[in-house]
From TrEMBL:
Domain of life: Bacteria
Name of the top EC class for this enzyme: lyase
Keyword match Aminoacyl-tRNA synthetase: no
Domain named Mandelate racemase/muconate lactonizing enzyme C-terminal: residues: 125-230
Ranges in coiled-coil conformation: none
Species of origin: Paenibacillus solisilvae
Keywords associated with the record: Lyase, Magnesium, Metal-binding
SMART domains: MR_MLE
EC number: 4.2.1.6
Protein name per its UniProtKB record: Galactonate dehydratase
SUPFAM superfamilies: Enolase C-terminal domain-like, Enolase N-terminal domain-like
GO MF entries: galactonate dehydratase activity
Length: 377
């Protein structure tokens, strides 16, 4: 079998899908993207296509090594995201070729269904509590909320009180059975993260996410040692080498590789194994589309230290594949059943993709402080 062509589809709302075709008629799908830089990653995929066309798609590890190490300069979000989407598509092809799900080729099922968490928001504590109740009524036993933006490097007591009030309102409304994670989004300074974690601690968050940027591991260690709340991070770390120091220094309890950024399905499986050595868990990051979700579910199914799966919780269920897949994923009682189909276990509706085509120019929202200076989203 040989790779004959690679086609890219920019689809709404901000996604990039890749289709790899072969001379045996089997094709595979992946999602190679950096949010807000879809055109840049598309160019990287086009460059890698020069190597891949004519190659045997079943030699996934070999091609990963060539793509990652082959150009002297390695790593970074753009190149590794391009490799990630290609890697997903190659696993999809391999699974269809051998007629088995990807998880079957990576050791087989460790579970029958995948626990999901839902995003939850609210401008006021009352709104936040009402939305959390709605999520529990929909069957979820875990949600994730976010620290509001913009936040100053040293912010007021009122800011801390406002954030804590939302968490308190959720606990008041739903009790102690619901897991509530909190995303700091890497935009909170370490000084403020330590203060916020201390204020949140009585409400027993499931984890706090990116309480500092991952590039300075010692900072993360300092925050981790200041609180009993488990620290999660990893959506902006790439490959095993990106996670090594954070795991060795035990800065994070929960690794969150993004399967569209960290190097793909098998790379994330290796990262999960590294975390397992430190008794850590994996909760794959996923704010993207249905191919990303499908890839995550394959990993979640076969990984013993899997904790919980993120999805963007879009009202239209696009992230679950509605309007993109012939059969969208269904969340029942907060879980998705492990898919049975070969490869990634999905069928893309190509006609629907063409209807949802866009120029690929989605950009990250920009925020500004009251004085006009730039603030992180
Ligand atoms: Mg996050």
């Amino acid at each position: 079998m040989k790779i004959t062509d690679m086609k890219l589809f920019h689809v709404k709302p901000r996604w990039l899908f890749l289709k790899i075709e072969t001379d045996e008629g089997i094709c595979g799908w992946g999602e190679p993207i950096v949010e807000g830089r879809a055109l840049t990653v598309a160019a990287a995929v086009e460059e890698l296509k020069r190597y891949l066309v004519g190659e045997d798609p079943l030699r996934i590890e070999h091609h990963w090594q060539v793509m990652y190490r082959g150009t002297f300069y390695r790593g970074g979000p753009v190149l590794v995201s391009a490799i990630s989407g290609i890697e997903q598509a190659l696993w999809d092809i391999k699974g269809k070729y051998y007629n088995m799900p990807v998880y079957e080729m990576l050791g087989g099922k460790c579970r029958d269904r995948i626990r999901m968490y839902s995003h939850c928001g609210g401008a006021t504590p009352e709104e936040m509590a009402a939305n959390a109740v709605r999520k529990t009524e929909a069957g979820f036993n875990a949600i994730k909320i976010g620290v509001d933006a913009p936040v100053h490097n040293v912010d007021t007591l009122r800011f801390v009180e406002g954030q804590t009030a939302k968490l308190a309102a959720i606990r008041e409304a739903v009790g102690s059975g619901l897991d509530v994670a909190i995303d700091f989004h890497g935009r909170v300074s370490p000084a403020m993260s330590i203060r916020l974690a201390q204020a949140f601690e009585p409400y027993y968050p499931m984890f706090i996410e990116e309480p500092a940027l991952p590039e300075n591991v010692d900072t993360l260690v300092r925050i981790a040692q200041s609180t009993t709340i488990p620290i999660a991070s990893g959506e902006r770390l790439f490959t095993r080498w990106g996670f090594r120091e954070a795991l060795e220094k035990q800065a994070i309890a929960i690794v969150q590789p993004d399967l569209c950024h960290a190097g793909g399905i098998f790379e994330a499986r290796k990262i999960a194994a590294m975390a397992e050595v430190y008794y850590g868990s994996i909760a794959p990051h996923n704010p993207l589309g249905p191919i990303s979700l499908a890839s995550c579910l394959q990993l979640d199914a076969c990984t013993p230290n899997f904790l919980i799966q993120e999805h963007p919780s879009m009202a239209e269920r696009w992230d679950l594949g509605e309007g993109y897949l012939n059969q969208a994923f269904k969340i029942q009682d907060g879980y998705i059943a492990v898919p049975e189909g070969p490869g990634l276990g999905i069928e893309i509706n190509e006609e629907a993709l063409l209807e949802r085509a866009y120029p690929g120019d989605w950009d990250t929202p920009r925020l500004y402080y009251a004085d006009g200076s730039f603030a992180e989203w």
